[in-house]
Write a structure and sequence with these properties.
With 264 residues, the protein is α+β, with helices and mostly antiparallel strands. The protein has one domain: Immunoglobulin-like. The protein has an eight-stranded antiparallel β-sheet with strand order 5-4-7-8-1-2-3-6. A hairpin with a 2-residue loop joins strand 2 and strand 3. It is globular. It starts with 6 loop residues before the first helix and ends in a 6-residue tail after the last helix. The structure holds copper (II) ion. Copper (II) ion binds next to strand 4 and strand 7. The site of copper (II) ion has 5 residues, from strand 4 and strand 7.
């Protein structure tokens, strides 16, 4: 399986893949899509991601750097598969002017969680901050992620409307998540640093200002997902775990190893 393909080789082959995809716009529901992750909140965290769709299987590969070393980083595909246009937030989204675009401030821009990019088990919005199943950056702040998951046809059809966000920043440079920027709006027990976005990237070719794929779709009513917008998306249990694991990767790793089954 190409899954085991050397990552560098996979990325090197990207231009060819993209060319193919561009030459066949009719097959929008499939193929490989590249994402450049660009820093938010002056995090210096950047990276590259590849979303590859085959049938209803989505393979997500992420290589990023500049993240908070040894800390877990929640990561999600945000946006809507109902034809709504969301995008990565700009610094303007910092409504309270504290210098940090918080997760809550970013939500109107990047939309709700569509897929939680966990390392195993559930990938729904419910696992948004299932920190023991989120990847941890290494001692150099680098993070590698690769997983293939089954996705709905809606995701396949609207993959270009989604974008990738990695969370977790260290605004005072002390090497861990703390309350120097206050509490997270999602859960007051959590530091803002743990949930604020570190980077965001949109799929190349999903040009800013263009109509999203399926933008003319006439849906019926509001989906539960939309109603959930802006509401806290983490379970208290996951939140406590995140706080405990702040800067201490060991805990997350131990928990992960102890877990036999990723199911909830
Ligand atoms: Cu997110």
């Amino acid at each position: 399986m190409p899954l085991r393909l050397n990552r560098l080789a996979a990325f090197a082959a990207l231009p060819a893949v993209l060319t193919l995809a561009a030459a066949a716009p009719a097959s929008a529901a499939g193929g490989a899509h590249q994402i450049d992750l660009q820093q938010l909140n002056d995090s210096k965290a950047s990276g590259t991601a590849l979303l590859d769709i085959k049938g209803n299987e989505l393979t997500v590969k992420i290589e990023s750097e500049g993240l908070v070393p040894g800390a877990p980083h929640a990561q999600h595909l945000h946006g809507s598969t109902d034809g709504h246009d969301f995008h990565c937030p700009s610094a303007d989204a910092d409504k309270n002017g504290d210098g940090v675009v918080s997760t809550a401030e970013g939500l109107p821009s990047y939309g709700d969680i569509n897929i939680s990019l966990t390392t195993k088990g559930d990938t729904s919005k419910d696992s948004g901050l299932a920190v023991d199943r989120m990847p941890t950056a290494d001692k150099d702040g680098k993070l590698s992620y690769s997983r293939t998951i089954e996705v709905s046809q809606k995701v396949v059809d609207h993959i270009k409307d989604l974008h990738l966000v990695q969370h977790g920043i260290d605004t005072n440079g002390n090497g861990k998540y703390d309350f120097n920027k206050g509490k997270s709006e999602l859960d007051p027990k959590l530091p803002q640093e743990a949930t604020a976005p570190a980077n965001c990237g949109m799929i190349k070719g999903a040009a800013v200002g263009s109509m999203p794929v399926g933008g003319v779709e006439t849906g019926g009513g509001t989906t539960p997902q939309e109603e959930g917008m802006g509401s806290p998306y983490l379970a208290a249990a996951g939140g406590a775990g995140l706080l405990a694991a702040g800067g201490v990767a060991l805990l997350a790793r131990r928990t992960e190893r102890a877990r036999v089954d990723g199911g909830r």
